[in-house]
Amino acid sequence: QVQLVESGGGSVQAGGSLRLSCAASGYFYSNYCMGWFRQAPGKEREGVAGISTGGSVTYYTDSVKGRFTISRDNAKNMLYLQMNTLESEDTAMYSCARGRSGGYCYPSLEFYNYWGQGTQVTVSS
């Protein structure tokens, strides 16, 4: 079955950096879009970044453009999110997600159907 396991979260001061990782298994990894989503307390889950099957096309929500970078390693079945210049507003549980297909990779909920358990990111100001 599809398994997605995140790691790399933690506590950091504003302006700092973190790199999240996601290990995928149970399916043919390179056939599917991948994405990162986050959910802050009391808020709905929102899409942060998405990446195409080959990794050449990426999408970002406006609030993280220029600060976050999504990437994937299809040989290792791994997904990454490099987060720089972190802000207190970035505090949330971050989850990686598998797309429903390889065609629509924008990080919108309707295009994804599997999520990992998540890793907590806390940014203090």
Global morphology: globular
Helicity, as a percent range? under 10%
**So how many helices?**
0
Number of strands: 11
Q: Segments where pLDDT lies below 50 for 5+ residues?
A: none
As a whole number of angstroms, the C-alpha radius of gyration is 13 Å
Proportion of β residues?
over 45%
How would you sum up the major sheet?
7 strands, mixed
Distance between the termini: 40 Å
Q: What would you call the structural class? A: mainly beta
Order of helices and strands: EEEEEEEEEEE
Notable features of this structure?
125 residues; mainly beta; seven-stranded mixed sheet; four-stranded antiparallel sheet; 11 strands; 0% helix; 50% strand
Description:
The chain is mainly beta. Helices cover 0% and strands 50% of the residues. It has no helices and 11 strands. It has strands at residues 3-7, 10-13, 18-25, 34-39, 46-51, 58-60, 68-73, 78-83, 92-99, 112-115, 119-124. The strands form 2 sheets. Strands 2, 4, 5, 6, 9, 10 and 11 form a 7-stranded mixed sheet that branches. A 4-stranded antiparallel sheet has the order 1-3-8-7, with no helix packed on it. A hairpin with a 4-residue loop joins strand 7 (68-73) and strand 8 (78-83). The model has no long low-confidence stretch (mean pLDDT 97).
Sum this structure up briefly:
The chain has 125 residues and is an all-beta fold. Helix content is 0%, strand content 50%.
Topology readout:
Elements: E1 3-7, E2 10-13, E3 18-25, E4 34-39, E5 46-51, E6 58-60, E7 68-73, E8 78-83, E9 92-99, E10 112-115, E11 119-124
Parallel strand pairs: 2-11
Antiparallel strand pairs: 1-3, 3-8, 4-5, 4-9, 5-6, 7-8, 9-10, 9-11
